[in-house]
Design a protein that fits this description.
This protein is mainly alpha-helical. The chain has a single domain, classed as Four Helix Bundle (Hemerythrin (Met), subunit A) (Up-down Bundle). Helix 2 runs antiparallel to helix 5 and helix 2 packs parallel to helix 6. It is globular. The two termini are 34 Å apart. This is Transmembrane ascorbate-dependent reductase CYB561. One of its GO terms (cellular component) is lysosomal membrane. InterPro entries: CYB561/CYBRD1-like (IPR043205), Cyt_b561/ferric_Rdtase_TM (IPR006593). It is a multi-pass membrane protein.
């Protein structure tokens, strides 16, 4: 710092938990790739393997990137709030784009193979989660990233945004678990109960998804690990309240 003060540090334990979350996230991506590559023939577009893009995209977008987007405010604790907001929105937007590719892949694959759409519990939960996630992203950008919403309206919506953010992350992992189970029952229903390697690997992926979700949720719910507002942010917040509510900062 310019005044000779020591640089700000992260709270004790935060960095370790974030590192564990990233290790788990990368491991679950590698496990997904290993499952699809070793037992399902890999991934290719406009081919019988197009369906396999679906689980890969959903795990990457709706779980790993969504989880990282939620962690942004814990990891980048001392950067400008505007930059942190932008990164938060961009990661969520990237997650949505990748998930959309996964949804297109499964619909095109079903159409090519003559398989019905949207009849399973997995498809209902997954599509509802994606639509609500898209709505959450639009509302978040409208309230927090772009000017227009008043100070009181932002204050009212912020708890809802936080609650639904964590809820949608949980729903995403739940939908993935349902999808893994459905895929195993379709592909190896006769041998699944015999502890075949594919079943064990897919079950391991499910455990990794749960573990990743638990670690991210733990980081998000530790009160002392929340991002503290910077002094200039508090001043800007009061100025914004004055402009949008017509009150003085001390009102």
């Amino acid at each position: 710092a310019m005044d000779g003060a020591p640089p700000p540090t992260s709270p004790s334990g935060l960095s370790a938990y974030v590192a564990v979350s990233q290790l788990l996230g990368l491991t679950l991506l590698a496990t997904t790739g290993a499952w699809l590559g070793r037992y399902r023939g890999g991934v290719a577009w406009h081919s019988p393997l197009q369906f396999n893009a679906h689980p890969l995209c959903m795990v990457l977008g709706m779980v790993f990137l969504q989880g990282d987007a939620l962690l942004v405010y814990r990891v980048f604790r001392h950067e400008a709030k505007r930059s942190t907001k932008t990164l938060h929105a961009l990661l969520h937007g990237l997650a949505l784009a990748i998930a959309l590719v996964g949804i297109i892949a499964v619909f095109e694959s079903h159409r090519a193979k003559g398989i019905p759409d949207m009849y399973s519990l997995h498809s209902w939960c997954g599509m509802a989660t994606f639509v609500l996630y898209l709505l959450q992203w639009f509302l978040g950008c409208g309230f927090f990233l772009f000017p227009g919403a008043s100070f009181s309206l932002r204050g009212w919506y912020k708890p809802q945004h936080i609650f639904f953010g964590i809820t949608l992350f949980i729903l995403s992992i739940t939908s993935c678990l349902l999808g893994i189970t459905e895929m195993l029952l379709f592909k190896i229903s006769d041998s699944y109960s015999h502890f075949v390697p594919e079943g064990i690997l897919a079950n391991t992926l499910g455990v990794l998804l749960v573990a990743f979700g638990l670690v991210v949720a733990y980081v998000l719910t530790r009160e002392e690990w929340k991002r503290p507002p910077l002094a200039e942010e508090l001043a800007l917040s009061m100025d914004f309240k004055t402009l949008t509510e017509g009150e003085s900062p001390g009102g």
